[in-house]
Each structure stands twice: as C-alpha cells, then as structure tokens.
Amino acid sequence: MHVAMIGTGYVGLVSGACFADFGHSVTCIDKDAGKIAGLHEGRMPIYEPGLDVLVAQNVKAGRLSFTTDATRAVAEADAVFIAVGTPSRRGDGHADLSYVFAAAEEIAGLIDGFTVIVTKSTVPVGTGDEIEKIIRARRPDAQFAVVSNPEFLREGAAIEDFKRPDRVVVGLNDDRARAVMTELYRPLYLNETPIQFTERRTSELIKYAGNAFLAMKITFINEMADLCEAVGADVQQVARGIGLDKRIGGKFLNAGPGYGGSCFPKDTLALVRTAVDAGSPVRLIETTVAVNEARKKAMAGKVAAVVGDLKDKVVGVLGLTFKPNTDDMRDAPALDIIPALQALGAKVQAFDPEGMTEARHMLECVDFREDAYSAAQGADVLVIITEWDQFRALDLDRVKDLMTHPVMVDLRNIYKPDDMRAMGFTYASIGRG
Known about the structure:
Mean pLDDT: 96
Strand order of the largest sheet: 3-2-1-4-5-6
Distance between the termini: 57 Å
CATH topology of the largest domain: Rossmann fold
Shape: globular
CATH superfamily of the largest domain: NAD(P)-binding Rossmann-like Domain
Structural class: alpha/beta
Largest sheet: 6 strands, parallel
C-alpha cells in the first residue's frame, strides 16, 4: 500500500520506517527542509536506538523516501497519516491543534480518489470530527474517511513497540477505511496482536486515558515513597509487593523525581481541560498533575537536606533527559531540579549520554561535562536524575576519589544503600528510609 506520513518527528519517522519495513511504500513529508536534507544523508533528527539502521535499510530497498512536497505522495496514497506535534497551548493547557488543522487543510487540496486520513498525533476527543469538517468544506466532492489511530510508542523502545505492540486501536465508522487499516496492519495479525476497532471518539479518548492512568500510577508510587521515608519502610519492596498482584502489575511503579517527557505532562493536562469543558472533571488526574509538578521542584530540597547549605557547593548531575535511551528533554525533571539547585546557590556540572545538545538550549549556567567521571570531579555531591545503564555500574572507588566529598543523592534508586555506606558514601535515595 502507499502511505504518506505528514511529519518526521518522533511518531512520524518511527511509524513511517516501521510501515516501510512491513513492506508498504512510505513517503515521509516535512516542511523543515533541513530535516529532510539530513534524512537524505542518513542523519536522524531524533535519537532512538536502531532507528538509523531501520531507515537506511528501507531507503535502500526503495520503500521509504522523504520530501518537503506533499503533492504527489498524498495524491498516490491509500492512507495519509497526520503525525505532527500537539504541544500544550500556552496559557490554558489545551492541546495546540494548529499543526493538525494545517495538515488537514493541505491534505484536502491534494487527495485523489478514496483516501483514508489517519490521525496518529495525540488529539483531544472530537478532533477527528473537526478534521472531517475542514476537508469536507474544502473538497465537498472528495471521497475520504477520517480515522483515529493513536500511537503507543515508548521512547527508547519505539521500534519494538510498533512491531510487537500490546494492541492497536483504530477508531472509524467506514467499512472501506476498515479494509485499508486492516491491510496496513496485516503483518501484526501473524503475531496475533489484538486490534481493537472502535468509534472514532472512543479511540481518541483511549490514548489520553491510557497515559493518564500510567502517570497516575507513577505519582501514586512516588507518594508511597514519601510515606516510606516517613515511617521507615522500603518503597521498592512495597512496589514489588503490590506489583505481584496481577490486577496492579509491576510496571510504572519505580519511584523517582516525577514523570516528564513528550506525552504524560501535556496529555494529562489536555485531558483535564477536555474534561472541564465537557462538564465532567477528572479529579484524580487534576491531583496527579499538581503533585507531579510539585515533586520535581521539591527534589532540590532533598539534595539540600543531605548536604546542608548549598551556597557555592558543586553539584554533579548524572542524567538530563526525562528517561534513558532518548535525547528528549521535554518536561524532564532536570529542567526543574537544576534551576532549583542553582537558586539555592549551587554550581552545577552535568553529563548526559544523549541529551547534552538539547540541554544546552534549555539550561543556563551549567558546566556540561564529557562523561560521568568528569561530572563527579570536584563535586560536593553527585545527583543521579536519569537512570542510564552506564550510570548503574560506575567505578565507585574512582568516583569517591574524584569528589570533594563522597555524597550521592540517587533519585532513581540505582544503588543499594548498605553497599554505598560500606564504601564510605553518604547516600540518600527515594523512599528507602
């Protein structure tokens, strides 16, 4: 089948490359000429493990191409995917749908013959209706169907998630569109992947409900971590104890400094706004948003509680991205923690394996270092914010020798408290008494 993918960001590029790997002919379209030029040269605009190889293989096979001109690709497409950004709208928290609606306007003028227009971007309930109105107003004669097909890709594991997903959700009310979507995802039927066909608005809400539930689960275990510290319990054992209950499950029960990234912050906020507008507020999610924001800001106080006065103290920071195996800095806890440390008078030196380029644009007065050990050099305290694998097996004797004072605040519970204290570190972690 012929697929046009509007947008070569995280969702569009990964989805396009994976559809091409399924055997479809895919053209990825973006207005950013520099990004398209880079893709032609094999340079990825994002860091995602394995994506560069997947893209190169499918470009070589002739199944994947890139362009700034949507004309031919959309006209020939059986399905056109909208995979553009939907950031939080400044001022009110609603999803900014301007890029989605602009894409719909462009698509309307280019489709030729029956075309399935698929919203892959995360959008509020009812967006598909608005897209349909836009296209129908522009092209009353056009044959098309608007479909919701939300993405469920974890950064750092996106290719695996696309090819071996827990489920695929498709929202539509057109039999021809159902046939097209079934053929697009036919390779997944071989793996017996559950493919759930729903009404379009239901599909749109599934995406938001899923992300909100996971964000709530993270926030729950973070509050349990605070309680564990107050009463002398171990949050990791609490998480294991409740996670073994199959009704709960162990995923997303790792206590830490709060959630961030491209999805949870904006999607929980957008769901809250949608619910308020619909006259059906979601109080649990409202509280989740508030608690998470407060938690990220409070982490600097946790460091100060261990070190004391932070004025003129050197704080080494390991990890800047919101999670490992990505270069994504969007709403990363580090963006709240580091300025708060600086406000307390600390001097910050930091290292991240992939996030340094973005971090330089988003953080001020930070001394960016070349590796974990140089971030520890001369530090009064070392703070682990992101749990990259390379931070899990540091040469702790070397770290101790490099630091002015052997103090570690581990916001991801990578190390064992008894082991760290036996090595002579003053050690603090999350929710472990």
